[in-house]
Amino acid sequence: MITKLDSMLLAKKKFIYHYKNIRWAKGRHETYLCFVVKRRVGPDSMSFDFGHLRNRAGCHVELLFLRYLGALCPGLWGCGGSTEKKLSYSITWFCSWSPCADCSFRLSQFLNRTPNLRLRIFVSRLYFCDLEDSREREGLRMLKKAGVQITVMSYKDYFYCWQTFVAHRMSSFKAWDGLHQNYVRLARKLNRILQACETEDLRDAFKLLGL
DNA sequence: ATTTTCAAT
């Protein structure tokens, strides 16, 4: 794999500023999305693409990504003929914020209609997830039900992103103060949010059994 | 203890 030009990579400062998993991320009025798109071509070969996006005025970065999806995943919807076999892709993205409720809803709908696309989402910080009944929390659960694996970024994920998406110019990734503690706190929070899926399912099961 | 959030000026 040939390394992309620096201009296609994220500046170091930008990456650190936007992906820092601090509790009060003041001034992060932008969201970055670093992605890797993979397609299995044969038993040992794989097509591969990667890059990053930033939200634009009036368009959250997740929906922007969906706009580019056709170009990133040729054949995802078949190659014209309806009998044509659709190609399967798996996408991993790393987002500085977790998706808002609306994006989660639209993504879930899209994924439910596109079973040949697998999506894994890593997030640096949780967006509006403080309130127990926030719509953003509900959105994350909806994504999980649509088969998305949602994970909070840990050191190894930042390290990977640094190596893959950042114009690091041979400098190695240096963790900021509190990276690990913040990760642990956020991962617990996300687990609590997503576990509600299971208690809900359990409640439904009980109801079904008349218990 | 409290602080922020894909802005709005």
Automatic annotation (TrEMBL):
A Pfam family hit: APOBEC_N
GO cellular component terms, semicolon-separated: cytoplasm; nucleus
Hydrolase found in the keyword field: yes
Domain CMP/dCMP-type deaminase: 27-143
Cofactors (names): Zn(2+)
Keywords for the protein's UniProt record, in alphabetical order: Hydrolase, Metal-binding, Zinc
GO biological process: cytidine to uridine editing
Keyword Metal-binding in record: yes
GO molecular function terms noted in the UniProt entry: cytidine deaminase activity; RNA binding; zinc ion binding
Family named by the database record: Belongs to the cytidine and deoxycytidylate deaminase family.
PANTHER family noted in UniProt: MRNA EDITING ENZYME, SINGLE-STRANDED DNA CYTOSINE DEAMINASE
Name under which the protein is recorded: Activation-induced cytidine deaminase
Lineage of source species: Eukaryota, Metazoa, Chordata, Craniata, Vertebrata
